[in-house]
Amino acid sequence: MSRPDPIATRAVPAIGCLEILPFCAQADAPTAHRWLTDPHARFWGMGDNTPADTRRYFDAIDDAATHEAWLGRCEGVPRFLVEVYDPRADAIGAYYDVAPGDTGMHILIAPPERRIPGFTWAVFAFVVDTLFARADVARLVVEPDIANDGIHPLNERAGFSYVRHVDMGDKTAAFSVCTRAAHAGAMQSLSPAHARAACREPAVAVATADQEIMQ
Fold first, then answer.
1. Helix 51-63 and helix 25-36, axial crossing angle in degrees, nearest 10
2. Mean pLDDT, to the nearest integer, of 191-200?
3. Which residues have a Cβ under 8 Å from the Cβ of 78 and sit 6 or more positions away?
4. Structure-model confidence comparison of residues 112 and 146, the more confident one
5. How far is it, in rounded angstroms, from Cα 130 to Cα 133?
6. How far apart are CA 183 and CA 26, in angstroms?
7. For residues 205 and 210, what is the distance between their CA atoms, to the nearest angstrom?
C-alpha cells in the first residue's frame, strides 16, 4: 500500500530523520494497538482494547472533520503517534471557553526498544513546530493526567503554561496552553542539548552536550 507524502520531515542530529504522516487505519491500527495496550500507554485509557476496538477508534477519527491522527517515523520505522483535535469537539471543550485557533494534541511514543537520549523531546518539539506551522493554529491546549509525570516537563519546556486542574471524570487533568509567542520564547532558553534536539542550533555548538541525559 502506497502512503501519502509526509506532512512534515526533520533531520535531527544524533537521532535521524523524523517524519509525520497521515495515519492510515487499515495499515497502522495494528501497530497503534500494540502501543496503546502496552502498560506505558496507561494514561490513554485503552489498555483493555481489542484490535477491533482500536480499529473503530481510528476509523472514527478518520471520519471526523474535527480530529486527525498522525503516524510518526524515525528512519522509516514507526515510533510515535499524534492526535490533533478541535477542543470544541472534544471532552476538554466543556471545561473552558475555547478561543478561535485553539488546537488540542496528544502524543504517544512507542515502547522503546533501546533508549535514545533526547528522542522524546525531539519528537515533542517537532510535533509542536509542525502544528504552529499551520496558519489556523493560534494556541495549543493539552490536558494530561496530573499523575503523568513524564509529560509535564516536556510541556513546560515547549512553552506551555499551566492554567488549572480540571476534573474530567475519568481523570484530573493539568489543563495547559501554549501560544506561538510562548513557544518561541521557550525555544530561546533551551539547554544546548535540548536546543540541538529541537533543531534550534548547529550540531557542533557544544561538543560535551552529547553526554547530557534528556527526557
1. 130
2. 95
3. 28, 31, 71, 72, 110
4. 146
5. 5
6. 35
7. 11
| Cβ proximity of 64 and 89 under 8 Å | yes
Instruction: List alpha helices for 78-214, DSSP H.
Output: 119-132, 151-158, 180-187, 192-197
The CATH class for the domain spanning 8-211 reads alpha beta
Query: So where are the chain's domains?
Result: 8-211
Per residue in 66-101, pLDDT tens?
Answer: 999 999 999 999 999 999 999 999 999 999 999 999
| Cα–Cα separations (whole angstroms), residue 176 to 16, 56, 102, 132, 161 | 30, 29, 12, 16, 5
| Closest among 112, 61, 108 to 85, alpha carbons compared | 61
Q: Which percentage of the chain shows pLDDT scores above 90?
A: 89
Predicted confidence (pLDDT) per residue in 32-67, tens digit: 999 999 999 999 999 999 999 999 999 999 999 999
Q: Are the C-beta atoms of residues 102 and 80 closer than 8 Å to each other?
A: no
Q: Are strands 102-109 and 139-142 parallel, antiparallel or unpaired?
A: parallel
